[in-house]
Every structure is written in C-alpha cells, then in structure tokens.
C-alpha cells in the first residue's frame, strides 16, 4: 500500500540528504521518476519500484513496472538493476523462474540488466523484487506528471483498471465463480496483465508533444488523474462515459461492487497535450495498434472533477484509495 | 545470504535481456557496481543493494552500504533511491525513524535522495530497504574488482571483520556475556558499525592510482580478496599476520571460535596498486586519519593464497562462506 500524500510530505520529501541543484525532478507528489541534469544536454531518468504482492509473474512484472516509469518521462528505458529477495526456503528453481522472466521482459522492453542482487533473505515469505530502471534523454527535455497546461486535452490509452482486472480474476477467482461469473471471462481478464507495458505509447506521445504523462497505479485511472491535477496545480475535468472500460473489467467490478475507475491500472497511460496535437497523436497510436481516448480537459483551478454517467459530479481529493485495498480489507486476504 | 558463484553464472549473468555495448561493466563475478559509457567522457556508475538482516540501523546502513559500492569504482556517490518495505503492522514511527536515518546518512556521504518508494508490504516481517546508488565519473576512467595487476601491492584499510564485530556484539550478546566477555568490550565492538563508510578512502585511493578496489562484505576480508584474485585472473598472496584485527574482534571471535578474516567486513576497503604508489597512498590515508596496511602482493597465477600465522598456507576458493552464516545455522537464529 502506497503512503498517503501527507505522510510522504512529512517523512519522505523533506528528508533527502544534501540537495543537489542538478536534480530537476526529485521526490515529490505524483512524480515517480527522478530527472538529473548530467550536463552536455544529457538528462538521467531514474526510478525504483518494488513488486511485493505477486508471486507468479513477479520477475516479468518487476521489469515492466519499473520501465514504465522511466518511459513516462519521455526517456527510453535502457538499463535495470533488480534486487531479488527470496524466502530462505525457496529453491534454486525459484531463481531460475524469476531470472528467466526478467530476461524475457527485458528483451520485450529492450533493456539490459546491468547489475542487481539475489539473496535468500530472512523475513520475507514470498519473492520480492525491487527494480531500479534508468534511461537517458539526450535533448534536455523531459515530461513530468506536473506539466499539464490549461487548455490541454486529457488522453488515456487502453482501458481502465487493466492490472486490477487481472488481479481480481486471479486472486478473487472463487468468489467470482460463486457470483456467477463465467470461467472463460475470468481467463480473458487474467490475461489483461499482458498489456502492462506503456513504454511504446509513452515514447510516441513524448514525440507528439505531450505536456504531462503519468502511469496510474494504485487508485486507478482516477488516482492517476488526481495526481496529474494536483501535481500540476490545475483542474482536470473528465467524463466517466468517455473512459473506456473493458467488458471483462465491468463484469468483475459489478460482481464485487467496486468502481473500475479506482482499480489499479498499470498498463494505462494518461497524457495531457495541446488540443491541436490530439488528432495526430490518436492517429499515430492507432497505427501502432494502441487504443486511446480523449477523456477530459485541463482548466484553471485545482483538483479532479469527475462527471459520472448518472449525472452526479465528484471532486476527487489528492489520495484515491484503491478498490483492491478496500476489497482486501473487507474480504480478508 | 549471497548466491554462490556457480548459481550466479547459471541463472543471473547469462540472463541480462538485450546486451548494450555502452555497458562497460555488467553483471559479473565480484563486480557489484555497473559502469555505463554515456558518451562525452561521462561514465555512469550504478548499484543496488538490499538490507534485510538489520532492524535498528536499517535506514542508515542502507545508504552507506549502497554508496560504498559506487565509491569503489572511483566515483563519488551522488544520488540514491531507497525502496522501503515495512511490515503491514509497522506504524508511522517506523517510517519516521527510517527516513531520519536515511537523511542523516545521506548528509554524511554527501548524496541526495532523488526518488524511492515507501510501502507497507505484505510478506515482510521486518523493515527491508533496497537502495540504488548512482554516481558519475567525468574522466572516463573507472576502477574495477578485476583490475589487479601482477606486481601490485595489496592494501586494506581499517581492520578485518568490522561489520561482523558489530553484529556479533549485538546479536550474540547473551552468548558472549555467558562466555565471560566484558560488557564494555561488547559496547565498543557494537560501535564498529560507525566505521562502515569507505567512500573517503575509496575516492582517495582512486586518485592515488589504485588498479583495483573492492568492498569486502560476506566472506570477510578473505572473501573480498578472493573476489579480487579470481575476478582479475591473478594470484593474490597475503600474510595473516599483516592483516590488522581489532582487539574487540579478536576477543569476540575467540569466544565464538570463528575466523575474523572470514567475518563480514563492510567498512574495510581492499585495493591493489603499483608498489611505487604505496608509500604515498599510505601517507595520504594517514593524513585523513584512516589506518591502512599492506597485506600482500599480486602475482601470476589464479586464486588466493593465505599464509597463516601458524605457518600453514591455505588456497582459498572463489566462494568464502561467511562465519556469521555458519554461526547462525549452528546456533539457530
């Protein structure tokens, strides 16, 4: 579970050691990747992300999730370093499986594992991988969560709640079968994880002039949009009926009574860009086979305003609790 | 517990995704930090290290341990990213303590926290921190574990088993008191952890023309020397009586019947350098208040040859099991 913004502010963002003027983006609300000016026009983009909740695909996921956050800065992820912690009773085959997955995901994204650490660690009951991902921007321009401009349109790729759909279909399989969801639909939902990489669309939208980009994770699409809004100090206004939700996601969410827009959504990319670039961006994404939708606008103000399909409007705060967290605490893990 | 070299070879070093010609040092035996050529004479030095076994100083340790590995490449550590995983029942005060420690260690080393991640994670029963550390070399030259040259002298700083002494004095306190070790000596031993940073001496020895440097962790000074020897494809010959061991370390090791030279030794730096540079290097270290000793020589051949004080000679293999691991498995944890 991510920390709430007020705790991050109090304990994390203020305790950064020696401030370095070369650091253009450091620890701050909604910004996951750091940007450092190396001189000679080169910017280093760096990120670290742990995977703690998964078992089956942990190696594969770790690579994609870390690389996504480098790509949303507009940088091609290039190098990764996974720190792999295994339970002390895990066997050699656990290492075998995980490093195969890492190798395979690294080939998919086109990155090299340049370092890392593997150990059997006391105090962990499942594999945990913290992965650092690095990339270089050669032209001095980077994209941040906080760069949304008044007048921008809000674009999102793929569908809402992609990662969450896969988690629901796997972790809540029994409960969903009991509630009459068909097995075949669960299987399709579980495969949504395959769409987790946003590297291709992020690099494309960076070239298309995106002002801000963000990879919504916990808190889902609305959590991600709120981070763009509050980090940018703007009002983001979106319409629920324009936000695409896959049939599989809708069925699972209805069965469990959760909101697909607040369901963890790695695999979706949020970008804001000047309206005159929107058409071209949508066409370019389509040529790459990536669905995308215009879901809202950026205005003067501050916060996230959601116009629901039923006519109600909702002002969303800085922190959106993920529906999955609520579900876990209600149903037990 | 670190992986044995044959497992690293089989499952880790061969599974690196897409090989990148800019990577000058990637995953390989004895090399902890990666080196990447960024062009314009700039080299990126990058490392990741988890702390899994400590509770009290975990934040402070995480920063120093990660920065040490960047410094042994001759690069000043500049930026760090800690991924902090806390047990789900840890309170706000755990975050408070850890981020204070991180801030304080970062100030000691002179680095900035540029990113990171903090979460309450399922599946961990103690705080775990995986820290990525980064630095830049501006002049294109880096130092590696594998750079030892025939004719070099082998230098080590401080004493053997520093980190291990502190762990013994804390984790085996009761057993040591029972065996008649004095409380005051235990307290002095516990404070050896304060010497854990090798950043100052590593940067100094890099300027003094070191051919190779290495930060011995698990397996102690002999483990570290073996890594230098095998990674360099040379014979390293050392004399036990020249390797300084603190009185506190000697007493604790005798009481527990363990070898101080195979006791985890973060805080010690191993370097090899041309003999004509040795005198000047020792003087420069002394001016900085850092003890150092010449403990051996690099010759043609392969492996680590240790001449023990009792007249026996021992050829040490690629992997040295740490005495602490042996002790934990004998006494239970």
Q: What structural class results from the helix and strand content of chain A? A: alpha+beta
Number of strands of chain A: 14
Query: How far do the termini of chain A sit from each other?
Result: 13 Å
The mean pLDDT of chain A is 95
Q: Residue share in helices of chain A?
A: 25-40%
Which descriptors apply to this entry?
homodimer, 35% helix, 333 residues, alpha+beta, seven-stranded mixed β-sheet
What does this structure look like?
- The structure is a homodimer of 333-residue chains.
- With 333 residues, chain A is α+β, with helices and mostly antiparallel strands.
- Chain A is 35% helix and 24% strand.
- Chain A is globular.
- At the A-B interface, α1, β2, β3, β4 and α3 of A face α1, β2, β3, β4 and α3 of B.
Reconstruct the topology from this structure.
The structure is a homodimer of 333-residue chains.
Chain A: H1 5-12, E1 23-25, E2 34-39, E3 42-51, H2 58-71, E4 77-87, H3 92-109, E5 112-113, E6 117-121, E7 128-137, E8 153-157, H4 162-171, H5 173-178, H6 183-190, H7 199-207, E9 212-214, H8 220-232, E10 235-239, H9 247-256, E11 270-273, H10 275-287, E12 292-299, E13 303-307, E14 313-316, H11 323-331
Parallel strand pairs in A: 4-5, 4-6, 10-13
Antiparallel strand pairs in A: 1-2, 2-3, 3-7, 4-7, 8-11, 8-12, 9-11, 10-12, 13-14
């Amino acid at each position: 579970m991510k920390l709430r913004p007020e705790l991050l502010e109090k304990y994390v963002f203020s305790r950064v050691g020696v401030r370095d003027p070369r650091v253009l983006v450091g620890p701050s609300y909604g910004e996951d990747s750091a940007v450092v000016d190396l001189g000679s026009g080169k910017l280093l983009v760096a990120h670290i992300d742990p995977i703690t909740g998964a078992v089956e695909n942990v190696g594969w996921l770790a690579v994609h999730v870390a690389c996504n956050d480098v790509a949303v800065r507009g940088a091609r992820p290039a190098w990764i370093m996974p720190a792999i912690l295994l339970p002390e009773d895990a066997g050699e085959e656990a290492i075998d499986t995980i490093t195969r997955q890492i190798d395979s995901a690294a080939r998919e994204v086109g990155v090299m594992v340049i370092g890392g650490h593997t150990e059997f660690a006391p105090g962990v009951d499942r594999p945990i991988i913290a992965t650092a991902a690095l990339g270089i921007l050669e032209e001095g321009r980077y994209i941040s969560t906080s760069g949304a401009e008044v007048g921008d349109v809000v674009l999102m790729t793929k569908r809402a709640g992609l990662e969450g759909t896969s988690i629901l279909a796997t972790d809540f399989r029994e409960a969903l079968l009991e509630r009459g969801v068909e097995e075949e639909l669960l299987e399709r939902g579980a495969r949504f994880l395959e769409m987790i990489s946003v590297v291709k669309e992020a690099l494309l939208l960076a070239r298309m002039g995106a002002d801000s980009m963000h990879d919504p994770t916990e808190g889902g699409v609305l959590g991600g949009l709120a981070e763009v809004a509050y980090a940018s100090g703007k009002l983001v206004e979106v319409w629920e009926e324009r936000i695409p939700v896959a049939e599989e996601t809708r069925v699972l969410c209805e069965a469990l009574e959760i909101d697909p827009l607040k369901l963890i959504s790695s695999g979706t990319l949020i970008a804001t860009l000047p309206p005159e670039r929107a058409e071209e961006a949508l066409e370019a994404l389509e040529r790459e086979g990536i669905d995308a939708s215009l879901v809202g606008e950026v205005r003067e103000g501050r916060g996230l305003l959601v116009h629901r399909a039923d006519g109600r409007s909702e002002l969303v705060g800085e922190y959106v609790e993920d529906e999955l967290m609520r579900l876990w605490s209600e149903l037990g893990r």
